[in-house]
Amino acid sequence: MASTLFHSPCACSAPSIKSLDGQNYVGLKPSANLRFKFSCVKTTVKAPQSQRLFIVRAGETRDGQIKKLGLSDAECEAAVVAGNAPEAPPVPPKPAAPAGTPVVPSLPLNRRPRRNRKSPALRASFQETDLSPANFVYPLFIHEGEEDTPIGAMPGCYRLGWRHGLVEEVAKARDVGVNSIVLFPKVPDALKTPTGDEAYNDNGLVPRTIRLLKDKYPDLVIYTDVALDPYSSDGHDGIVREDGEFLIIFLPCFYAFFYVCVFESERGVIMNDETVHQLCKQAVSQARAGADVVSPSDMMDGRVGAIRAALDAKGFHHVSIMSYTAKYASSFYGPFREALDSNPRFGDKKTYQMNPANYREALVEAREDESEGADILLVKPGLPYLDIIRLLRDKSPLPIAAYQVSGEYSMIKAGGVLKMIDEERVMMESLMCLRRAGADIILTYFALQAAKSLCGEKR
């Protein structure tokens, strides 16, 4: 920015100073080593004929800097007192309304909230919720192979080779500020059993991966999943006791014929306490490998307290527990189960995951997890359950996590591919909404993409 001094040729009774170029200047003394460009301008400011006006503008100069006139404070003040204050550019005219705009009296409003939204700078000043890569936990699928295998239902996501593709993906995430990940393993079918014993194999896929990542990135925050479904031949989060029964009921119809209806009850019961015993061994194995946060996603009763006791008994007092506190029996999990090849062999998970119709039940789960020693409370899914995130945020002092699950991710991706939505904007808005609802951290498959977007905005 630069300053150009203008004068008008009108008479002036105020004392003037003659410069080296022979011009007279009222109340302003240019420095001896500077030359100024002067030109006449018209101004809308009315002044007495006895006054000479100076208009100071941000104009063009060779070095782009505003030139100082070399006046002392007293000289500047004297010029103003004498009525020779420099004039700034005139106030811009009020923009004209489009033709046909009705002329109406102003509404008698004391408060107009739009005043705080009228410019990007004001909107940024008053933004209540911030989103940064530090808020993201990046879920990563791993397998025993060396090649990265694309996941059909989740465009852009892969089963990563634990020795190669995973390390490269973690490096990319760290480059844009995402330094927290959560691991989900695709376990070979030959290693799956009804009791999920592979879950606590110290040389299993997850412990090996943790040790590899910690060796390369000691400060990487690693979350793990504590549940039996990737290791279970039944595909459930716990040990299944098969004790279903068949009922044959004869119903008479209007014409006295009989229809035979066969109903099958629950084919299996998820054994709670026996499952918790296995989960404790799994959590200890993961902690031994170097996990920072173990995350029981199984929804068994009492598992947080039991895992806390098991970790403490082995000296892992520093390992945190992020409990899947309000995990609903949702239809949004489909793509995830394809990624891990962990669909239940029969039935569903409604006897241990929460009913999507229930709100108050989340408080029951939260209070139990808090009392048992959870460090973080998680809500899953995320966007369809913003009310639950807000409920836990208002009722609990603990950090709140939200899981933007595979179904949410895939819908946004599909909408973007079909050009039905702006993928980038919907992605960022959905993440901001999870933060606004009260989530401190967000588990999202968009972590890398969103972090790149945020870094791009800063640049």
Strand content: 15-25%
Rg calc: 35 Å
Helix content: 25-40%
Q: Order of strands side by side in the largest beta sheet?
A: 6-9-10-15-16-17-18-19
Strand count, sense and barrel status of the largest sheet are:
8 strands, parallel, barrel
Count of strand segments: 19
> Judging by the overall fold, what is the CATH architecture of the largest domain?
Alpha-Beta Barrel
Number of helices: 12
On the 0 to 100 scale, the average pLDDT is 84
Helix and strand content put the structural class at alpha/beta
Low-confidence stretches: 1-53, 245-265
Distance separating the two termini: 23 Å
Shape: elongated
* CATH fold field value of the largest domain: TIM Barrel
What number of structural domains do the residues give?
2
CATH homologous superfamily title of the largest domain: Aldolase class I
CATH C-level of the largest domain: Alpha Beta
What does this structure look like?
The chain has 459 residues and is an alpha/beta fold. The chain folds into two domains: 1-92, no CATH class; 133-239 and 272-458, Alpha-Beta Barrel (TIM Barrel), CATH 3.20.20.70. It contains twelve helices and 19 strands. The strands form five sheets. It has an eight-stranded parallel beta barrel with strand order 6-9-10-15-16-17-18-19, surrounded by nine helices. A three-stranded mixed sheet has the order 1-4-5, with no helix packed on it. A two-stranded antiparallel sheet has the order 2-3. Strand 15 (293-296), helix 6 and strand 16 (320-327) form a beta-alpha-beta unit.
